[in-house]
Amino acid sequence: MDCFNVTILGCGSAKPTLRHSPSAQVVDFRGNRFLVDCGEGVQVGLCRSRVPMGKIGHIFLSHLHGDHCLGLTGLISTLGLGQRTGEVVIHGPADTERIFSPLFKFFCPDLSMEVRFAPFDTTQSCIIYEDHALIVRTIPLHHRVPCSGFLFEEKQRDRHLLPDRCEELGIPIAYYQGIKKGMDWTDPESGRVVANDLLTTPGERGRKYAYCSDTIYAESVVPIIEGADVLYHEATYTHDELAKARQRGHSTALQAAQIAQKAHVGKLVLGHFSAQFLTAESEQPLLDEARSLFPNTVLANEKMTIEIGLE
Amino acid sequence: MDCFNVTILGCGSAKPTLRHSPSAQVVDFRGNRFLVDCGEGVQVGLCRSRVPMGKIGHIFLSHLHGDHCLGLTGLISTLGLGQRTGEVVIHGPADTERIFSPLFKFFCPDLSMEVRFAPFDTTQSCIIYEDHALIVRTIPLHHRVPCSGFLFEEKQRDRHLLPDRCEELGIPIAYYQGIKKGMDWTDPESGRVVANDLLTTPGERGRKYAYCSDTIYAESVVPIIEGADVLYHEATYTHDELAKARQRGHSTALQAAQIAQKAHVGKLVLGHFSAQFLTAESEQPLLDEARSLFPNTVLANEKMTIEIGLE
């Protein structure tokens, strides 16, 4: 199947540790790389995971807390040092351009490519990227500042042609592409209409990846991420620190699992771990807690690549 | 002897690699920590080298290229999350406040400590920090933007008292401190003056550490850094890339050695390596080149701590 995966570059939270980098990940959809959040050290993460930086055309910032965006100026600067041309689009909340544009002007005035800011409204779900095969939608989240997650949604895939049937009917090959898209076939001579489902079988459904960080427990995301193959959801704390999580606008591992369960996702990836979790052992309670409700859960880790929809 | 050392947190140049972090180092003078440059990833470097972040009171920025200062906002944000109170002083070229003040206001509006900007003139050598035992002076450098190095200069140490001589003369202990500072002793009864050098032997000379990054070859630094125990000098390229070095405002390893030799420093530490040097082997030519002129040369490396003046 065509490539669709996500590589975690950073899954820590604001306070830096030697275990985790701040938030950043790369979605690879059929060779196009989309950067999701851009914490400090993102470039090292890209190098470490051997992601070709030059392939990044769109950067999505969930919100303007430093641990999600302070790697941006350095990254843009490096991208603009090379032979990179064309455009890099930065999707982010309203203030993104106001904050970063002066930095780009000061630190990297001679970029080899264009940078365009594409602000989005964090209060409603909207399509912020679309091409022939992929849609990216925002997922309104509830944090201390305007914040959105992102849903990467593969479009419905082409129907599968039944070639024997088409040949039998003498359909010219030039029509196959349209038939795969769902068109019926009308014989130009006889005027006879053959319904598409006699010529094809259904294509695979589009795969979906949902990114939800940072947020309090918010059931409002459920209908948007319904049926996602993979959900990355923040789980900054265990549930015994629920009060702290709420106060800081974060979720617990159990709450992440509740969202995963309600949205019938395929797999849950926990991330955005508090700096108090300094070892694999100390993170185990986050995993145990989530798995008690939603068994197909894993802990994010730097360099991990998760295939979307292969299970 | 009292502690005086420098720990390298980053000695790479602008383009990130897995081998080196961008420029940052910590000078530890008798337990006070001074941060010199503040590239992205500085916080991880501080964690890795177990430098207590809370002890950093002064940050010195040589110039406003991203690889020397883009870690600042994250660091200030983290410092201000804790119980840190008092003041953090950021010494930098004129534009430092204009660029960073809006970032601090946006990303870390609720700092637990004060941040004060202390701009300096990069065109002349001036004292930018002084306490009872240490002076920090700027070293005007020549780069593509206003840029200064820093000279950390221990003040002349107290003279050593000859206690037998002082006792013999019946000098009250209350006068010892002044005598160690160089005062003569006048007997209040007889009016007899005893010259200080009969009561003391000379104290050790003050130790000096010089930081010169980024700069073209500039002999103007020589009188300022004359006799430094340790000189950290950028050596972005080997001498066969002299033209590129000049064009980009950088030095070669041989040029760093020339400066070290002319200034009669004790030891040369090469740093700010181009991203083309990806292995220890590939950096060896830089070392060989410098050592051909100045044998007591080492290559900087992250986590390396260099004692100042113990040789």
Give an account of the 3D structure.
Two copies of one chain form a homodimer. Chain A has two domains: 4-157 and 204-307, Metallo-beta-lactamase, Chain A, CATH 3.60.15.10; 160-201, no CATH class. Chain A is 24% helix and 27% strand. Chain A has ten helices and 18 strands. In chain A, strands 6-5-4-3-2-1-18 form a seven-stranded mixed sheet. A seven-stranded mixed sheet of chain A has the order 7-8-9-14-15-16-17, with helices on one face. The two termini of chain A are 12 Å apart. The A-B interface holds A 14-18, 21, 40-41, 43-44, 47-48, 64-67, 70-71, 73-74, 77-78, 81, 95, 99, 102-103, 106-108 and B 14-18, 21, 40-41, 43-44, 47-48, 64-67, 70-71, 73-74, 77-78, 81, 95, 99, 102-103, 106-108.
Q: Key features?
A:
homodimer, 311 residues, alpha/beta, Metallo-beta-lactamase, Chain A, seven-stranded mixed beta sheet, 10 helices, 24% helix
Entry summary:
2 copies of one chain form a homodimer. Chain A is an alpha/beta fold and 311 residues long. The first copy, chain A, has helices at residues 42-48, 66-69, 72-79, 96-107, 163-168, 176-180, 222-225, 242-248, 253-262, 280-291, and strands spanning 4-10, 24-29, 32-38, 56-60, 87-92, 114-119, 127-130, 134-140, 148-154, 160-161, 185-186, 193-194, 200-201, 208-212, 230-234, 267-271, 297-299, 305-307.
Please give the number of β-strands of chain A.
18
What is the H/E string of chain A? Answer: EEEHEHHEHEEEEEHHEEEEHEHHEHEE
CATH class of the largest domain in chain A: Alpha Beta
Main pleated sheet of chain A: 7 strands, mixed
Give the number of domains of chain A: 2
Query: What is the straight-line distance between the termini of chain A?
Result: 12 Å
Helicity level of chain A: 10-25%
Question: What is the subunit arrangement here?
Answer: homodimer
- Which homologous superfamily in CATH is the superfamily of the largest domain in chain A? Ribonuclease Z/Hydroxyacylglutathione hydrolase-like
Major protein interface:
A-B, 30 and 30 residues
Shape of chain A: globular
Mean pLDDT score of chain A, rounded?
95
β content of chain A, as a range?
25-35%
User: How many DSSP helices of chain A?
Assistant: 10
Order of adjacent strands in the largest pleated sheet of chain A: 6-5-4-3-2-1-18
Structural class of chain A: alpha/beta
Per CATH, which architecture of the largest domain in chain A?
4-Layer Sandwich
